[in-house]
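Dear colleagues,

For the upcoming journal club I promised to circulate an example of a predicted protein-ligand complex. I picked one with flavin-adenine dinucleotide because it came up in last month's discussion. The inputs are reproduced below in full, followed by the predicted structure.
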Amino acid sequence: MSVFLHGTVAEIEQITARMRRIRITGADLRDLPWTPGMHIRLRVGDLRSPRSWLRGLLRTYSIWDYSTTGRLDLCILDHPSAGPGAQWSRRVRVGDPAALTPPDGRLVVREDAGYHLFAGDETATVAFGAMLRALPPSAIVHGAISVEGPGDRLPLDHAERLTWRCRPADRAGPADPVDPADLVDPADLVDMVRSLELPGTPGVAYLAGEARSCQAVRLHLIRERGWPRRAVVVKPFWTPGRRGMD
Ligand SMILES: Cc1cc2nc3c(=O)[nH]c(=O)nc-3n(C[C@H](O)[C@H](O)[C@H](O)COP(=O)(O)OP(=O)(O)OC[C@H]3O[C@@H](n4cnc5c(N)ncnc54)[C@H](O)[C@@H]3O)c2cc1C
């Protein structure tokens, strides 16, 4: 029996300047247990190619939206160092087959939270989007999202409660190809979270995206704001120089 669920690419949409929404449909995708915030692992390499094996056949993607009728949407960022995942998102066409693992993960909304704090970058907004859609309109939401440019903003529910900021464009300098380590300074996201006016007592924080930024915000919440560790859910998605985390 295959560990993969098999489907077909049914729709491709340029949903932000650098992100494609890719819809996969099929009978294997019906009635899956899914909680918003979960991810799948997608086969992005060719099983017959030794190069694919070396670079890693799988990449992990949050589920932007899911229907039990057998329809699952991913949003994949096209980043400057494009590895197998970003390259797959460039070359895939409607009608192509897709193989993925069932939904999994612990980055999900804690319903007993007094309020919800979201912090991360554009990749994190895919999971955050699904989680925010699942929250009732009365939920108390705070958030800080760092993006490369204004075109990187995914449409999110409760967006008026989130602070968005673009990272300085000139940080990478004239180097070509760009060193990804230069694109993100963890201090950016910490500064954004530090400036948020949060209630006096801890809520639940969901930190995702670039790994060093997640860790820096986690330390800020625990050390500077006195949050208990269990109130901070961290899921690093990527980090400069490392391939396919998870
Ligand atoms: C739980 C989880 C959920 C995720 N959800 C999403 C999602 O919804 N959408 C999404 O696009 N990605 C998501 N990711 C990240 C994704 O799995 C891949 O890491 C990412 O697509 C890069 O894969 P790649 O093959 O293109 O590059 P890789 O071969 O994995 O990496 C090559 C190099 O590219 C650079 N790099 C990687 N990612 C970025 C980036 N975002 N910005 C700038 N430079 C980068 C790094 O320097 C890295 O060493 C998620 C990861 C995890 C663990």
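Two points we might discuss: The mean pLDDT is 93. Helices lie at 50-55, 84-91, 124-134, 186-195, 211-224.

See you all on Thursday,
B. R.
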